[in-house]
Amino acid sequence: MKKIKIFDTTLRDGEQAAGVNLNLKEKILIAKQLEAMGVDIIEAGFPIASNGDFESVREIAKVIKKSTVAGLARARKEDIDRAYEALKYAKKPRIHTFIATSDIHMKYKLKMSKEEVLNQAYEMVKYAKSYFDDIEFSAEDAYRSDPDFLCEIYAKVIEAGATTLNIPDTVGYALPEDFGRFIKYIIDNTKGIENVDVSVHCHNDLGLAVANSLAAIRAGATQVECTVNGIGERAGNAAMEELVMTLKLKKDVLSVETNIDTTHIHRISTLVSSLTGMNIQANKAIVGANAFAHESGIHQDGVLKEKSTYEIISPEDIGLKKELNLVLGKHSGKHAFENSLKEMGIELESEELLEAFKKFKDLADKKKHVTTRDVEAIVNNKTYFKEV
Ligand code: KIV
Ligand code: ZN
């Protein structure tokens, strides 16, 4: 089995999500949880961006021992110096330096020629290498860059000492099959690439970040960059929980594995959501409130008889304690209703059960979700609903 490294950038790209601002204590809390669940690399921030970012990278670098701690730096001396200062206490430090390589970015943003970008990347990776061994180089907007230019610049930074090459789809523009082919082309045509990690960093502008990351893994990528709940710039980044659970479920198909203990997923997802104030949509894969909720009578009946009829992942796999999460609503059948009663410790004779079920159905026609309290009220013959 090939190991896929999980590079989490919740504290850097994730924090770039509009409206998100985490304080030092909150960042340390998240970093410790990421380490506990087995994340290989934690990108703790962008040290030159602000004093707050610098301080959080430095403090995270001091407390995290098992995971590598990365700090972002543009391919500039002052950024790299600042990243070094923040990371120097880390047990496993990594400088992650980047420069844009697409024609659009080079012309309008950097106002630099290809030769200048190539040279700057080479010199700055060499400079970063004078501080630490572990250096990641990203070609920003790689997917919209000339592939042959990318192969040239990647070969050059390998020569300068880069140990990970990151290939971002910065604006989330790729389709999975195309992205897979693109990654394979770079792997097949970059001198020295077999000695380094190949990473991808996919944004979710078209909702394809996870699919694109998986296509890249199939093409040979050995590291994926992601965030908890998929938060990040604009529509966000590849969602860590989706990637990790897919890799776990499709382990044999893809012949890969990760170091992640997935039973931490529910906890980290809830933590990040509550600290960032970014709510998780109810139907979000893996961590949404409805991800394990079976509403229709047919589904509920199936799950009660045999979980695998409608469940491909057990709630326990992501750390949810409750075995079954049945939502009672108008589509629920008698079996599910009876089961909920049992879970509440209520056993009824068949006639009472029929009567209670009829009342429940009348209520469910008026109220979207019938709660435990409603069910209690039904069996106790009280006025059972407040909000209709
Ligand atoms: O999206 C991107 O290209 C980035 C780089 C800095 C890796 O976040
Ligand atoms: Zn990004």
Automatic annotation (TrEMBL):
<feature type="binding site">
    <location>
        <position position="13"/>
    </location>
    <ligand>
        <name>Mn(2+)</name>
    </ligand>
</feature>
<protein>
    <recommendedName>
        <fullName>2-isopropylmalate synthase</fullName>
        <ecNumber>2.3.3.13</ecNumber>
    </recommendedName>
</protein>
<dbReference type="GO" id="GO:0003852">
    <property type="term" value="F:2-isopropylmalate synthase activity"/>
</dbReference>
<keyword id="KW-0432">Leucine biosynthesis</keyword>
<dbReference type="GO" id="GO:0030145">
    <property type="term" value="F:manganese ion binding"/>
</dbReference>
<keyword id="KW-0028">Amino-acid biosynthesis</keyword>
<comment type="subunit">
    <text>Homodimer.</text>
</comment>
<feature type="binding site">
    <location>
        <position position="237"/>
    </location>
    <ligand>
        <name>Mn(2+)</name>
    </ligand>
</feature>
<keyword id="KW-0808">Transferase</keyword>
<dbReference type="GO" id="GO:0009098">
    <property type="term" value="P:L-leucine biosynthetic process"/>
</dbReference>
<feature type="binding site">
    <location>
        <position position="203"/>
    </location>
    <ligand>
        <name>Mn(2+)</name>
    </ligand>
</feature>
<keyword id="KW-0100">Branched-chain amino acid biosynthesis</keyword>
<comment type="pathway">
    <text>Amino-acid biosynthesis; L-leucine biosynthesis; L-leucine from 3-methyl-2-oxobutanoate: step 1/4.</text>
</comment>
<comment type="function">
    <text>Catalyzes the condensation of the acetyl group of acetyl-CoA with 3-methyl-2-oxobutanoate (2-ketoisovalerate) to form 3-carboxy-3-hydroxy-4-methylpentanoate (2-isopropylmalate).</text>
</comment>
<feature type="domain" description="Pyruvate carboxyltransferase">
    <location>
        <begin position="4"/>
        <end position="266"/>
    </location>
</feature>
<dbReference type="GO" id="GO:0005737">
    <property type="term" value="C:cytoplasm"/>
</dbReference>
<keyword id="KW-0464">Manganese</keyword>
<comment type="similarity">
    <text>Belongs to the alpha-IPM synthase/homocitrate synthase family. LeuA type 1 subfamily.</text>
</comment>
<keyword id="KW-0479">Metal-binding</keyword>
<dbReference type="GO" id="GO:0003985">
    <property type="term" value="F:acetyl-CoA C-acetyltransferase activity"/>
</dbReference>
<keyword id="KW-0963">Cytoplasm</keyword>
<feature type="binding site">
    <location>
        <position position="201"/>
    </location>
    <ligand>
        <name>Mn(2+)</name>
    </ligand>
</feature>
